Amino acid sequence: MEVLAARLSTPDQLAEYRKQVLLRREKIKFQLSVCGGTGCSGGGSKLIRDRLREYLEQQGLSETVALKFTGCLGLCEQGPLVIVSPGEYFYHRVSESDIPEIIGQTILRGELVERLLYIDPASGERIASAHEIPFLKKQSRILLGDNWRIDPAAIDDYLVLGGYESLVKALVSLSSNAVIEQIKHSRLRGRGGAGFPTGVKWEECRRAAGTDKYIICNADEGDPGAFMDRSLLEGNPHLVLEGLIIGGYAVGAGEGVVFVRSEYPTAVNNIKQAIVMAESLGLLGENILGSGFNFRVRVSVGAGAFVSGETSALIRSVEGFVGEPRQKPPHLAERGLNNKPTVVNNVETLANVPYLIRFGADSYRERGTEKSKGTKIFSLVGKVNNTGLVEVPLGITLRDIIFEIGGGIRGRKKFKAVQTGGPSGGCLPEQLLDLPTDFEELSEAGSMMGSGGMIVMDEETCMVDLARYFLAFLKDESCGNCFSCREGISRLLEMVEQISRGESSLEQLSLLQELAAVVKDASLCGLGQTAPNPVLSAIRYFHEEYLAHIVERRCPAGVCRALVSYSINDQLCTGCGACLKSCPSEAVSGEKKLPHHISTEKCTKCGICLETCRFGAVMKQ
Amino acid sequence: MEKRVLDQLQGSPGRNGISIVSLLQLIQQEYNYLPEEVLREAALATGFPLIEMFRVATFYKSFSLVPRGKHTITACCGTACHVRGSEKVVREISKTLGVAPGETTPDGQYTVETVNCLGACALAPLVVLDGQYYGGVTPAGVGKLIGGHRRHDYSCEAAGSK
Which residue of B has its CA nearest to A307? Predict the structure, then answer.
């Protein structure tokens, strides 16, 4: 962490501090951004950063070249990534041995290192600048766009980009009611799942009687397949913190809590560090910048329970008890944390606030549809070519996200479905690809926006298996309070398991749908109310696939274990023995150079033989 | 280091603003799991009902009431990992080590865990071995991963202990 100035007590002092930082940085001519996201760290980006630092020191370049270890830059599969600017040259798959060339050629002579440039999978051409990469070019990254300029450990990086200007604007020229009016006018809706208008939520808490109000940032990102909150907290923690402080000012809270899941250790560390830095500069604490507003923030680390994402359960978790949801009303605005008025906002929602205050609600409203404004970050994953976080204006179609930005389906397979909204959402088929990403439109189609998980599936994904997966997940995560949720999900899972084994009937299928309606209607919280969505939407759009399992006892995608078998094609098998050696169950037999055979009794259907065979001789039916 | 949490609690009885979850997190940090006798002593020192502490300990995923292995191998079972075949990977890990998810090998070396999502979906299917991330893991890759880890670390120690 850098050495900071003394506590700043007026907005002018903050402006002066910012000026001093810029002055100190005048000598810097180049910037090297090394991605420190999970993907790139796994590929050894920490070592690259350390070696770069040493190399810059040896060459006497430490003063003119700034080295930043940033949050996730997006294209995780191409890592480790390094961006050199000016020019925003985007180098992928960088290794330690590339360092002398990056410095010698690009920094000292302004020449590109051709072989490190990213290759566009669509055109096969090398692309020099990050701006030109289709995956990034087609997004509008108002929240994620600064990640490569920011070292999360340096508050100065955030300040020189205009960070905390929105806080100053709110404290100096807007009353707390005016802030709420701006948020309401912007039509910002909660990004955690339900899409409730943020301004209305804040107003309720503002108006609630009582003192000692709280604002909680919900970073308990439990939706499997979504990781935008992690990325924001890791890559740009001050953005979230600034949003939280402005929120605290608007609702009249004296304390903020960031509730992070323990599975995200880097996010926990980065937000804690950000809080300490903001405190030491006087952007948190007593009488912030002389405004008279007092606000503290603490971090609470979750212990792992999906249901804790439900706001009333989250409050119990923050208090350190079992995180079970309770009946509402009373709403949290009346009785929340420690029985005081509380507002809970998702990470991404709060990250929108500084932008919105700085540029105004009218400018914010320019993006999006009638009822869904601004941008949304989706985590585009699964069987798609470009996986990663995608920030787009709301209203863009699913097709644009998957095919234009995501580069289409991997390995020339066919698109089958996209799952949005996680365990509360649903699977949408090809005929709905032109659906706009809008809260209402997605709900009407039987799915939901949720927190923005977008899992793309190809023809090798089985829709019965996927429904089984989500039900197993929800059965595990149900807190058990409501009978309909606890027992209902278990029974639904049993029924889907029967289908996946080819042991079901058409009567069972209608019983399943009937029970699903009961679970929806009779459960207390969102978990139970939305639990049947994945299975219901799968039956709705992939009815034939369900019939294939039930009537023909066949899994068309070749996934359901009880319904598939492996065999070896005599014509194609060369008898090389690779499958025999790799089979962990000794199910393959055969003489060398003669066709091999798989014993159905011994076979555990692990698929390793299929993976190993170089001649395409192993068949799955 | 030994009994740090308990010393602190006994040094200043009462709750001191600490919650059950954060108390259990401290104990687990120190012991790597939640030993029953420590929970009993902690309940006495803080006045939290023991039953409530057990309730919290069994409700949340990150707490373990049994000792954990020296090494932890975690397979991510998020949706993105699932559609790219994590179920087969988990089955292969269990088979290779001979224990089900949530269990520890009898020699106390490896604990097998599954997790709902680690938020690194681009790397799916993902396996984490002692904090190191391995992306795009195949069932065939599991044997190599564990075998390699054993050779580097485990077998040396086993040889040393002979």
Answer: B60
Query: Do B96 and B143 meet the contact criterion of CB atoms below 8 Å apart?
Result: yes
Q: Do B60 and A303 touch (CB under 8 A)?
A: yes
What is the gyration radius of the CA atoms in chain A, in angstroms?
Answer: 27
pLDDT in tens, A261-305: 988 999 999 999 999 999 999 999 999 999 999 999 999 999 989
Number of Cβ atoms within 10 Å of the Cβ of A76:
27
N residues, chain B: 162
Sign of CA dihedral A210, A211, A217, A222: negative
Say whether A466 and B82 touch across the interface (CB within 8 A).
yes
Per the CB < 8 A criterion, the answer to whether A221 and A451 are in contact is yes
Residues of B in contact with A453 (CB under 8 A): 79
Q: Please report the residues numbered 122 through 181 in chain A whose beta carbons come closer than 8 angstroms to any beta carbon of chain B.
A: none
For residue A360, count CB atoms less than 10 angstroms from its CB and return exposed for 0-12, middle for 13-18, buried for 19 or more: middle
| Confidence (pLDDT) at A4 | 57
Question: C-alpha distances in angstroms, B82 versus A185, A195, A229, A607, B74?
Answer: 41, 27, 21, 15, 14
Angle at A73 between CA A101 and CA A274, to 5 degrees: 110
Write the CA distances from A457 to A413, A428, A454, A462, B65, integer angstroms: 10, 10, 10, 9, 38
Q: Is A461 on the interface with B (CB under 8 A)?
A: yes
Q: Around Cβ A83, how many Cβ atoms within 10 Å?
A: 21
How far away is chain B from the Cα of A112, in angstroms, using its nearest Cα? 27
CA distances from residue B97 to A5, A580, B61, B73 in whole angstroms, order as listed: 54, 21, 22, 10
Can you point out the beta strands (E) in A130-238?
Answer: 213-219
Report which DSSP code applies to A199.
Answer: H
Predicted complex ipTM: 0.90
Q: What is the pLDDT of residues B138-149, one digit of tens each?
A: 999 999 999 999
Type and span of the H or E element at A516: helix A506-522
The alpha carbon torsion through A509, A510, A516, A522 (nearest 10 deg) reads -150
Which of helix, strand or coil describes residue A52?
helix
- Structure token pair of residue A189: 């809706």
**Torsions phi, psi of B2, nearest 5?**
-60, 130
**What is the maximal distance between C-alpha atoms in chain A?**
85
d(CA A596, CA B97): 28
Q: How many CB pairs under 8 A join A and B?
A: 150
Q: Measured between beta carbons, which residues in chain A are less than 8 angstroms from residue B84? A: 382-383
